[in-house]
Amino acid sequence: MLFSYFCCDFCAGKAKILIDKKNSYFTVMAEALISTSVPRFTRKAINEMKDQLVTMNLDQEGLLSTGSPEIMRSRLMEHFYPTTLNDDTGPSVSPSLPVSEEINAIPSTSDTVGAVPNYKEKLSGSLVESITKEVKKLKVVPLREKLRSLGLDEKGLKTALQDRLLDHLLADSKEEILNEVASLLEFQRQGNVIKQIPKASRIQAGKSFAEVLGKVILKNDLESWGELFRFARDFFGTPNRGGKKRKSLATLINERLQGPKSMQSEKPVPVKKATKMEGGANFKRMTADKLRQCDIKGAIRVISSDDKILPVTKENRDKLEKKHPKPHKETIMPAGPGDMQGTICDKKDVVQAIKSFKNGSAAGPDGFMPQFLKDVTNEELGATANLVLDTLVDFYNLIVFAGKIPVEVCEIYYGANLMGLAKDDGGVRPIAIGFALRRLGGKIQSNKVKNFSKTTFWPLQLGVGTSKGCEIEAHAIRQYIISDKVYDKVLVKVDFKNAFNSIRRDVFLRRVLQYCPSLYPMVYQCYSKASNLFFGPTFIIKSQEGAQQGDPLGPFLFSLAIMDLTKDLVSEVNIWYLDDGTLIGAAESVLADYKKIKDASDSLGLEVNPGKCEIMLVNSKENNNSTIAKFRELAPEIREISKDDLTMLGSPIMVEAINGVLLSKLESFQLMCDRLKLIDPHDALFLLRHAFSLPKLTYFLRTSPCFQNTEVLKKYDNALRAALISILNVGMEDSSWEQCSLPVRMGGLGVRSASEVSLPAYLSSVSATFECITPLLPTYLRNEVNPFFAQATFQWSNLLSGEDLPIKKSVQAAWDIPLCKKRFENLLQSANTTEDKARLMAVSSEHASDWLNCVPLPSMSLKLNRQTLRIAVALRLGSRICKPHKCHCKDKDTGQPGIVDNKGLHGLSCASAGGKGRIARHDRANDLIHRALASANYHCVLEPTGLCRDEKRPDGFSLYPYSEGKILAWDYTCRNTLADAYKEHTAVQVGYAAKVGEKDKFRNYEELVNENYYVVPIAHETMGSWAPDSLKFMKDLGSRISEATGEKRAKSFLFQSISMNLQRGNALCVMGTVAHHRKLEEIYNLGTIQTQDD
């Protein structure tokens, strides 16, 4: 009812409110409530009105009275309560908020940090008081006019008239009023959500999400925003799995989406805090969980991070509060955006931003995972995905980017979950995770200003808009310091305290308005007022200053704020990477620049941290103690360093510093390896390849001339080799390690050697950054030759016997692949046996190594157990598998048992030992092919009878033509690459054994070929090689699956599944040479034994 007065003023424009900036929010609302005309009906009355009355009132108002009752009711509602945008001269209030929400939508005016605000306490001392005050101001005549317009008694004295009007205005139930904002904050309730929407639920989920988001676009009120905030936990909360499992997750989710009220009685599963405990069980479980979600970065964090999450206590709340300062004392916010046009995005922008979310990205306070956005916008969903994308486009263009979010919602929408990580020095590092939709909007905006960032910040600021900015800085500073023309210079590294949280908001808001006005409506709404940081379920900390952590626009805003300062510095070298500044030049100029930074810091809200600033004398020819003393007058705690300590963003600048940096990395790597030994070997191998071997050193190798110090790198390689031996339980001689360190496609394990990658890594980095380094240097150094690069190219050419330099010099693979090919050729030439040559040829063939490229997912049969992985790796590397022993088979001629050597190859050919393994391998492969054809919409029959007169039967045939109008008939076979009958040929020709198998199958089914069948032998080898025609068919089948399902990764998954099946079959064959032994069957009965505690 209250809002009915307020709405007409804003929407119908009958009495425009002119707001003084000094007026409080509540006074303005009260003035609006008293000074405007009153609709004939309340919203509740219109909703409860009978259809005939709706028609009659439409006619009375001169409106169209056709259409369904719902349409006519909406038309009448729109007439009395039109939906329009807010007037920028007034407070931001949603035009369609119900009365109870308007009273409770009270912006927080308290700067205190503590428990969640009690909105009920605000009612009596806020809006109601302001309304009462405004009513008391009215004189008798205006009072009687108001009462007459409401159909109320206008007789009586002034006091009676005021009381009568107040009773009418505040007639609604106060309890109902008080519950509105509380319902908006229900999203804070605790409970886990699922990590991914089941495929069978995605269409319905997409439609429901688009519907909820559509309500926000149409109504833009607290009710619709509250429904959006509660969406994730209402529909995707983790179900309580107590008792017998009767329904699939997809079924449960669909039931919720179709009837959300039915799930209200379902209790949410409490949040389980994932804390690191001593021992390997927790590491193993947590890592497997992350990999199961394809969250590789999350699994890496579990293993590598020593961060301790601080508990939610008042003490830790106070520590985090200090990291979020109050607004600067001189803060003066710029004017609002008014009718300024915001950024306009399209579906491509939204899709690009959604795809940029990493797998496993965390949810914000509402529990909505970024993965949900990927799920409901997947191309496979067709029209549903387009519906969601169109709705997201409207949501951002009409609401978010236009700056039209209700003010009561802003402090929530632009808020975040907050946690604290304990530092070694006893401090705390805040980590904020915002709403997924807020982060998505920030990503879209950030992409929109990429070109602006490249042209505006270059060449001083390398942290925004500049690709490879870290590498450019490291190479540029090294080039300056090593020059003979540089002497008696001073280098200073500048550091700020809590920079991002301290930068003044009014400063970067003015910069945004000046340089990027299209961003201003959204950025102003985000940063002109405080937002909520939710520290656990108990505390709210106000974010009132700085660029919020987790905001994709944060680096851009910070760089924009300090841009004028960086341009005003005069040192010869003036390079910034976000808040890390490096100044080099004459002592006088650097000292003057340091003073400017210190003086300007207050106007920016920043504070220089002298204890973390560093100073170094560059090529000093004289005793410059006086220079250091001058700097210490300004910064007594500044630390003096030498070339042995000089690093830039973690990269050693001088050769003297390489050893110290690498040794620290080696110590960290050994700790990681100890943890990897505690988890499943397949998980450990995957993470070692993708994160903890070369990836941990990539930046280090690319930005420093490590190739000159290979002895230090070999220490790292030896630690890597020892870790691999321990994890895989496979011995590695020098030749095996040499093969292991090759790329997977060249027969290796992809665990690259640091000493061998250092040269191509450095060469490609210098080549990629060469043109960018020049503008950063003084003019007299721009034609200097990089001596390290010259040495590196000379060394590379010598290794390849004078081969020409690559054309694409900026690509690391262009320098690396020729060296790898050379090493592989050396391995082939040094192979002592025909078996080794055949093995190397086979494992380096196309699609022979797919099992190494997949994420170890048990749910998709893509994970090998400990023993199978050990045998698969040993077979690939030619390593020792077992102790020589006798097989339980008998030679047909001599009757003697077969001999199994230490490489265990006998089982791959032995009919007795490998029988079970070969049958299992064949059946599983045939099942995969059968299901793959079904996925491509070719229904098949397995092992049909009666096709051939000689009773031979293929593994299966299709019911409909596959190609050339012919019915497909296929038969799978796997031949042993290293069998005595084949190894002389397979050592020379890749896939020879598979080709023989292919020909044999064609010969067996020649009758079917003549009967117009499309016969396809699918011939594979134990070492992974394929026959040419078989490989061609499998590729075609994978493409047809992708076409039928829309899943681009279908072909890769098909080859990975076949490759995994091959490794399992090989392992069964190898282990089949050992006679059956009785096992400890009693352990299976332990569960039936009752203990005294029972």
List the helices and strands and how they pair.
Blueprint: H1 2-11, H2 25-35, H3 43-48, H4 51-60, H5 69-80, H6 99-104, E1 114-115, H7 119-124, H8 127-137, H9 140-149, H10 158-169, H11 174-184, H12 202-219, H13 222-236, H14 249-258, H15 280-292, H16 296-304, H17 314-322, H18 347-355, H19 370-376, H20 383-400, H21 407-413, E2 416-422, E3 428-434, H22 436-448, H23 450-457, H24 469-481, E4 489-494, H25 499-502, H26 505-515, H27 520-527, E5 531-535, E6 539-543, H28 554-567, E7 573-577, E8 580-585, H29 587-604, E9 614-618, H30 625-634, E10 639-640, E11 647-648, E12 651-652, H31 655-676, H32 681-692, H33 698-703, H34 710-728, H35 734-740, H36 754-773, H37 787-799, H38 812-830, H39 834-843, H40 866-877, E13 885-890, E14 897-900, H41 906-909, H42 915-935, E15 940-942, E16 956-963, E17 966-975, H43 983-986, H44 992-1004, H45 1006-1010, E18 1013-1021, H46 1028-1045, H47 1050-1071
Parallel strand pairs: 2-5, 9-10, 17-18
Antiparallel strand pairs: 1-6, 2-3, 4-8, 4-9, 5-6, 7-8, 11-12, 13-14, 15-16, 16-17
List the keywords.
five-stranded mixed β-sheet; about 10% strand; about 50% helix; alpha+beta; about 1100 residues; single chain; 18 strands; disordered N terminus
